[in-house]
Amino acid sequence: MYLSKLFIPILKETPAEAKIKSHQLMLRAGMIKQSSTGIYSWLPLGFKIMKKIEQIVREEQNKIGAQELLMPTIQSAEIWKESGRYEDYGKEMLRIKDRQGKEMLYGPTNEELITEIFRTSVKSYKSLPQLLYHIQWKFRDELRPRFGVMRCKEFFMKDAYSFDLSDDEARKSYNKMFFAYLNTFKRLGLTAIPMEADTGPIGGDLSHEFVILAETGESKIYSDKRIFDLDISKYNGKDDSIKELRKKYGDFYAVTDDKFNKDDFEKKVKKENQLITKGIEVGHIFYFGTKYSEKLNAYVQNKDGKNLPVHMGSYGIGISRLVGAIIEAYHDDKGIKWPLPVAPFTLSIINLMPEDKNCSDTAVSFYNKFLEQEIDVILDDRICSIGKKLSDNELIGVPIQLIIGKRDLNEGVVELKNRLNNSSKKISLDSAINNILSETKI
Ligand code: P5A
After folding, report:
1. In angstroms, what is the span from residue 199 Cα to ligand 1's centroid?
2. Burial 160-185, CB ≥16 within 10 A → b, else e
3. CB of 310 sitting under 6 A from ligand 1
4. Terminal-residue alpha carbon distance, the chain
């Protein structure tokens, strides 16, 4: 891709309505455009990043044997009446009528719909366990949509649902997902801490929020700061190992506002380890037993021919929110610093003098060689000032930047810049390819 051809409406000024860094940077870097309050269009750059995040989330779900399907955004009100949540959900639910006057809604979540799919086709314990997920837009008519994609009305979520015969088996599914979430966030470059949480309108008695630290987060968190040093690489996906890991997390105090108790906190956490800060909830998992299966009549026969309601859990990751959350964790005054796994491009070749033949030939030749190596590369061939070129590239935040200038070329060198630590060095033309290939390894 040539940057001159990319649809990327970069803004010079920070829009006044954007209050937090990620929102400001997403607007400035031309990643999103608000279409109405809390509803955004995803422009090519933003969309590409969201797709990369989505793919990592998908791979980690597939790894634990979850199966992907796709449910519609529009649902019938009937199943929500069966579960009793049609009224409970209140004004956050966007209610619609079709031309026959049938009550419909734009799905805020899918517990009811997936249970309805399950109950019509699964009748025996032999088909269990099942772990199903989809990645789909949701709509919640939030009272106060704010902070760009962090809290909006229409957002992109991965939601998974587990179905098990017994409470014991269901807790194993919960653990699997717990582990998959930690791995997912780690691959995205984030340290997400699982914190015991309230279950709210989803229901149940077991729930964890996955929270990353950020001053601009909406959740206030109280924790023992040693929890951030836990190393998950020592654990594997077996239930015993995950149980041990969950116990380790449980040993350290870490809760959000809803579960905070001052006396408990002060008793359990030494003063020097107390950390009170803010965080962003990037995922939330729930175990709610037979709450929906009983109401929606999702029963299966066990070995003895007895009909039992299935035990269920649901597991969400805010994929569109993650785009903002990663920016909150990875930026500086000049712009975004994408971690490699989610970067919109791995490498940006910045031709400072596109009107000079030597510079252009060299830039294009590098560009073609990196394409051959299957590196996701963008060539900044725009005719504009050197200052604008460098600052736009800093704003967009491609992690590795190869800067080609006329004077450097005369000396047989190019500049290699690492946006993550803002270090830069001159390297010989001959060594550029190998140097960059070794830096792009994830
Ligand atoms: C779990 C999956 C659920 O909806 N049902 C299906 C359960 N959980 S949740 O906590 O309400 O949402 C899951 C994640 O979605 C993100 N999220 C949002 N992102 C942007 N704007 C919003 N208004 C919004 N609401 C929820 C969060 O990351 C949350 O953890």
Report:
1. 12
2. bbbbbbeeebbbbbbbbbbbbbbbbb
3. no
4. 21
> Ligand 1 centre and the CA of 138: distance in Å?
9
State both tokens at 278. 């803010």
Is the minimum distance from the CB of 49 to ligand 1 under 6 angstroms?
no
The minimum-distance atom of ligand 1 relative to the CA of 110 is 6
Q: Is 230 exposed, middle or buried (0-12, 13-18, 19+ CB in 10 A)?
A: middle
Q: What is the residue-wise DSSP string for 119-132? A: HHH--BGGG--EEE
Structure confidence by residue, pLDDT tens digits, 52-101: 999 999 999 999 999 999 999 999 999 999 999 999 999 999 999 999 99
Greatest CA span in the chain, whole angstroms? 83
Query: From the CB of 208, is ligand 1 less than 6 Å away?
Result: no
How far lies 394's CA from each of 123, 280, 348, 350, 384, in Å?
56, 25, 10, 11, 15
Other beta carbons less than 10 A from residue 272's beta carbon: 6
Phi, psi (rounded to 5 degrees) for 147: 60, 40
Per-residue CA distances from 268 to 197, 206, 226 (Å): 18, 21, 13
Q: 3-class SS at 13? A: coil
C-alpha dist (Å) from residue 347 to 149, 339, 344, 374: 26, 12, 9, 11
Q: CB of 335 within 8 A of CB of 395? A: yes
Predicted structure pTM score: 0.97
